[in-house]
Design brief:
By secondary structure, the chain is of the alpha/beta class. The chain contains 14 helices and 19 strands. The chain has four domains: 6-146, Rossmann fold; 164-276, Transcription Regulator spoIIAA; 286-396, Transcription Regulator spoIIAA (2-Layer Sandwich); 401-460, OB fold (Dihydrolipoamide Acetyltransferase, E2P) (Beta Barrel), CATH 2.40.50. Helix 13 runs parallel beside helix 14 (372-396). 43% of the residues are buried. It binds iron/sulfur cluster. The site of iron/sulfur cluster has 10 residues, from helix 7.
Length: 461
């Protein structure tokens, strides 16, 4: 039997209705999820929807959810609830929820039982079947659920609607095998699976040909890229191949797991002129006891060896990190070890979070959960220390010259345009001096949280 083209069928249905059919994808969480959200937008566009940047008045709203923290989950329930009235007033409106949250049984059940106005609920792996779910929902006027088993990743060759005109995400792998005891990712996104290098390189060439200036290679643990592929290739080798693509662009990647970070990778960063001098290397804690209970499989000493090696191999490298405060059983002494590691590692920036208990993880049932006021106090102390260090790192770059991709990512005040340097520092320059795109910049002053830059004209280089 010939395969039914549900995308075409939805297009036909929409063409019979008047007006522009708008769709909004509300994505929560990590960059990987944003990349998935862009694919959902691509699928929606193929069905005949026009992508808009707000849920207000949209005919189709998809909540692409994140399960990493409890707060994000609460926000999703709140935001879905807000649309109940709009859904009642517009019988053609479709509300869908997908992503990591709904891969958890108790959440899917909650949407099924308590949110009858949610029309479609689907897991990440079911994205290619979205047109079929939409078609069946419209024609049968029934709610659609497609969560079951499957790879927790987006299939190859899906259309994509890129939200940014300068920076493109490029997933190189999906899922995770590490089972950190606090994390739901392996439970909701499945086991680690690397994409074929030829598919990644083909997509990278397309991105460059389309004029994008920055590619971020994405994976939960890019350092273990290549595991399980028939033709073995390491992440460092992949990085060198992406770097060899001709064009005016730069390369970033995230996230690196310290246990798999190698000298080979650090040397590739040094050798590849398009790869930024920047590594995001999440440590999570400075206490070996806590790291052990988190199942991170490295020690604070090993982490520091990596930091020292990175600084020895890559000139002017900056390192950022993720930290969790208040992990079950974290003593004041453990927390002090984290403060001590911050002083030694001197990250240019950190993403710190108070531990969030996630159902189904090993940490959720560990004894000695830390009271919120204790965690909040530690969190604030860590933040204060990091602010000081970040300002010092920014100040240490004053007087240097670097390349900045100006794209207005950060609001840096009227009359200024912002960008990130090759070392991932926030730099601003007067709007009158530079347009969006790459520019050589002299870093003349630190503003603490950012640097004031002076554009070096081409003839001065
Ligand atoms: S490495 Fe650990 S924290 Fe990161 S996604 Fe995998 S299990 Fe979660």
């Amino acid at each position: 039997m010939p395969e039914i083209n549900f995308t075409e069928k939805v297009r036909e249905l929409l063409s019979k209705r008047e007006g522009v059919h708008t769709a909004f994808v509300h994505t929560y969480g990590c960059q990987q999820n944003f990349s998935d959200g862009e694919k959902l937008e691509g699928i929606l566009e193929q069905m005949g929807y026009t992508i808009v940047d707000s849920a207000e008045g949209a005919e189709f709203v998809i909540f692409n959810t994140c399960a990493i923290r409890e707060n994000a989950e609460k926000r999703v329930f709140g935001n879905v609830g807000i649309l109940k009235k709009a859904h009642e007033e517009n019988p053609d409106m479709i509300i869908a929820v997908c992503g990591c949250m709904v891969q958890q049984e108790h959440i899917a059940k909650k949407f099924r039982q308590s949110y009858p106005f949610v029309d479609i609920v689907f897991g990440t792996h079911a994205a290619p079947r979205l047109p079929e779910l939409v078609y069946k929902h419209i024609t049968a006027k029934k709610r659609q659920f497609d969560i079951g088993e499957g790879e927790g990743c987006m299939a190859e060759y899906l259309p994509i609607h890129r939200d940014d005109d300068m920076k493109a995400n490029l997933p190189i792998m999906h899922g995770c095998d590490n089972f950190c005891t606090y994390c739901v990712v392996p439970l909701v996104r499945g086991r680690e699976k690397s994409r074929l290098p030829e598919n990644i390189l083909a997509e990278a060439r397309e991105i460059v040909a389309a004029g994008y200036k920055e590619i971020t290679l994405l994976g939960q643990n890019v350092n273990s890229y290549g595991k399980g592929l028939e033709n073995k290739i390491t992440f460092a080798e992949l990085l060198r191949e992406v770097n060899a693509i001709p064009g005016d662009f730069r390369i970033k990647f995230m996230t690196s797991h310290p246990k798999d970070c190698t000298r080979e990778l650090l040397e590739a960063i040094r050798d590849c002129e398009k790869v930024c001098n920047y590594i995001h290397l999440p440590v999570q804690s400075g206490s070996n006891d806590v790291l052990h209970r988190m199942n991170r499989r490295y020690t604070a000493e090993h982490y520091m060896e990596l930091v020292d090696m990175a600084r020895e191999i890559i000139p002017d490298v900056t390192i950022t990190s993720d930290l969790i405060v208040g992990f079950p059983g974290e003593t004041e002494e453990d927390f002090e070890a984290t403060m001590e590691l911050s002083r030694k590692a001197r990250w240019s920036m950190t993403y710190s979070f108070i531990y969030s208990k996630r159902e189904g993880t090993k940490a959720a049932v560990m004894e000695d959960q830390i009271p919120h006021d204790v965690s909040s106090n530690r969190f604030q102390r860590l933040l204060d220390l990091q602010t000081e260090i970040s300002h010092e790192i920014n100040a240490s770059f004053v007087g240097k010259t670097t390349t900045v991709l100006f794209d207005d990512e950060v609001d840096v005040g009227e009359g200024y345009i912002s960008g990130r340097s090759y070392e991932n520092l926030v730099v601003r320059a007067p709007r009158t001096d530079v347009q969006k795109g790459f520019a050589k910049v002299y870093l003349k002053e630190s503003l603490g949280w950012a640097l004031d830059g002076e554009i070096i004209k081409t003839e001065e280089i």
